[in-house]
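ingest -> validate -> predict -> emit
validate: passed (alphabet ok, no gaps, 94 aa)
predict: started
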Amino acid sequence: MCSSMGAQILFVAIDGHPVYVCPMCEVAWPTPQRQFIVDSADTIDDLAPNGVRLPSDAEIDAVRASGVQLAEVAVDWAEFVVDLLSDGCEVQTP
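emit:
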């Protein structure tokens, strides 16, 4: 993850598993990474070849129930999502 960023956006792969994405470098992980520590680096296409979508409220609750700490971030990520679409990665809303 970018050392200057720190945030990871939670998406859900079309087949249902979480995908955590750094919006600055578009690296993706199947589990959230600790800040400034990167254990692996995949692309969204590697982890979600059929595309990603935004998580539903129930999926967010399930991720939180698994022990992952999530926070709402006061940043407009629309440009990032549009960039993903223009790169050919399918993004769907629940």
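The chain has a mean pLDDT of 78.
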